[in-house]
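Pilot study result, target chain (234 residues):
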Amino acid sequence: PVAGGLDGEALAAAVQGAWRAFHRGDFAVAWEEGVRLGPPGVAAAVKAAGVYGGYLETNGDRAEQLLLEAATAAERAAGDAPDYANAHYFHAFALGRYSQRISVLKALAEGHATRIRRSLDRVLELEPKHADAHLALGLYHAEIVAKVGGFAARLTYGVNAEAAEKHFERAIALNPASPVGPLEYANGLLMMHGSKARRRAEDLYRTAVASVPADAMERLDVERARAALAPAGR
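Predicted structure:
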């Protein structure tokens, strides 16, 4: 037995089941089935928890609790499998979604930014072409620049707007069909530059809207991009 008392074939089937639940939008099932499998199931589990807790759960306390549980599960998996890049990535992913819920400034004060950066740096050590890690690092830079200003961001946290854009562009180059890259790039530009970046951001939102979603999560991303365009009547 290799995980949860399952042999290799049964484990593979269980992991596939968790991913199928995620892709069809059954996020609770994906979380419950994936998390009990340990490192092999952590990607499906934590991605499901992150999408649900970050975008769909309307009760703030429940969302925060779920995201913290997801971050803990991923951190545990990274400890059990330190060379498994996705365990480190999903630790950063869940903790990042949690930080957005509680506010970036509070997350900085509580030290979550340092933990997120450490996990993402480890991902790129293991897999330099991990598109989602580049995207997450783009958001990491953008959110800190937006909250504390360019000078303080560079001096205190070693982040800057130029690095944010480079990571966003790298993520899109590595995964050009996904709507989430242009969506989050647009969000990051608006966070950092405000109305000065609106035209560029709208072009990126349109790119996201024109994408063909591959699963339930990507449909949510397309709808988020469409909603971002709506106030401008586009």
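One observation from the pilot: The mean pLDDT is 93. A full batch analysis is planned for the follow-on phase.
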